[in-house]
Amino acid sequence: MPVGTKATVKTVDPDELRALGATVILGNTYHLHFRPGEDLIEELGGLHRFMAWDGPILTDSGGFQIFSLRDTLLAVDDDGVTFRSVYDGKAERLTPELAARIQERLGSDIAMCLDICPPAGVPRHELEEAVRRTTVWAQKQRELPRAPGQLRFGITQGGLDAELRRRSSEELVPLGFDGYAIGGLSVGERRGPMFDATSLAASYLPHERARYFMGIGDPEGVLEVIARGIDMFDCVLPTRTARTGSALTWEGRLNLRNARFARDARPLDEHCGCPACTRHSRAYIRHLVNQQEILGLRLLSLHNLRFLLDLVREARQAIERSGFDSWKADALARLAVQPQEA
Ligand SMILES: [Zn+2]
Question: For residues 101, 105, 107 and 109, what is the CA-based torsion angle, rounded to 10 degrees?
Answer without folding.
Answer: -10
